[in-house]
Design brief:
about 240 residues, five-stranded antiparallel beta sheet, 8 helices
């Protein structure tokens, strides 16, 4: 009996290791699909200064929903990595956000990418405590007349133009991790997730989502498979 049990355990561990290696190969090879070509909505004027953000996971809109950053309807992220409006759009869609705003400052080199969510992005606004005042309203946007490409000191607005999966962007375009999920919830509700749900966690276990770093383009299939926004394409 002991010999049989030992043999079974060896076989089980061997199969588990093989499955783990196969999963790692799958994760390392994962690349999100390119989203469909966006809709060019227009250019809005912007006189906002563009200081280098302390973190690409901007928290301006978590403290006060009435700041100028939030009134633009682009409360998520301040990413200075994208160099074009299309790159900005692809970044936002990869975070399950259907509105991108490529902000041009007073010079060609002063740019940054911000993201928003429209009313079509039902999964976000279904979050408990989500502040619907942060929605991007295309029909209410003050677009400049006949401007393409957008001039300096403006925001080029592009929106997602693909299929929806139960009020959410399909997860085949996702490229995010647990920090992104907590950050977006943080902006939506104005409250840090760990303030309520992780009160007993130590500082070391909290995600370093507000570090003074620029984003690395993660390709994390595991977060899509087992994270809050799972295989159905919805949040829950």
């Amino acid at each position: 009996i002991h010999t049989h049990t030992h043999t079974y355990l060896q076989q089980y561990l061997h199969e588990t290791l093989e499955n783990g290696v196969e999963l790692l190969h799958t994760l390392s090879a994962y690349k999100p699909k390119k989203p469909p070509s966006p809709v060019f909505e227009g250019c809005t004027s912007s006189t906002l200064e563009l200081p280098v953000p302390k973190s690409y996971m901007s928290d301006e809109c978590t403290e006060n929903a009435d700041t100028s950053y939030c009134k633009s309807g682009l409360p998520f992220y301040r990413n200075i990595v994208p160099q074009t409006s299309l790159q900005c759009y692809e970044f936002c869609v990869s975070k399950a956000l259907d509105v991108s705003g490529f902000v041009r400052g007073k010079s060609q080199n002063a740019t940054e990418c911000r993201c928003g969510a429209s009313e079509k992005n039902v999964a976000h606004w279904a979050e408990y405590g989500a502040r619907t005042s942060l929605k991007f309203n295309v029909s209410a946007a003050d677009f400049l007349p006949n401007t393409e490409p957008c001039p300096l000191e403006s925001i080029e607005i592009l929106t997602y133009n693909g299929e929806w999966a139960v009020g959410d962007i399909p997860n085949e375009y996702y490229d995010f991790n647990a920090d992104d999920i907590q950050y977006i919830d943080y902006v939506l509700t104005g409250k840090e997730v760990w303030e309520e749900d992780l009160a007993d966690d130590t500082e070391e276990t909290q995600p370093a989502k507000l570090e003074e770093v620029q984003p690395k383009q993660t390709q994390n299939l595991e977060s899509v498979m087992v994270g809050k926004w799972g295989g159905s394409g919805g949040h829950h």
